[in-house]
């Protein structure tokens, strides 16, 4: 577990393709919002959401009342 909040969870899973596929299938019932299957990655933590231009989305600003940094 990389990050835990009341409304979100970020996990890191390392293993064979079959094991990761099984985990993804098990977690699908929880409504996976974002998933990356590759080498090095960067993902936002908690409620932070960014648009294509790298700026916080209006949802992220409204949720926190301020802009959130990475």
Q: What is the C-alpha radius of gyration, as a whole number of Å?
A: 14 Å
H/I helix tally:
2
Helix content: 25-40%
Structural class: mainly alpha
How widely separated are the two ends?
18 Å
Number of structurally distinct domains: 1
Low-confidence stretches: 59-70
Run of helices and strands: EEHH
Main sheet properties: 2 strands, antiparallel
If you average the pLDDT, what whole number results? Answer: 72
Question: Any idea what the shape is?
Answer: globular
What is the number of E strands?
A: 2
Strand content: 5-15%
Which strand order does the major sheet show? 1-2
How are the SSEs placed, and which strands pair?
Elements: E1 3-4, E2 9-10, H1 17-27, H2 58-64
Antiparallel strand pairs: 1-2
Features:
70 residues, mainly alpha, two-stranded antiparallel sheet, 26% helix, globular, disordered C terminus
Explain how this protein is built.
This protein is mainly alpha-helical. It is globular. The model is unreliable at 59-70 (pLDDT under 50). The chain has two helices and two strands; from the N terminus they run E-E-H-H. The chain has one domain (3-64).
Compact description:
The chain is mainly α and 70 residues long. The chain has one domain. The chain contains two helices and two strands, in the order E-E-H-H.
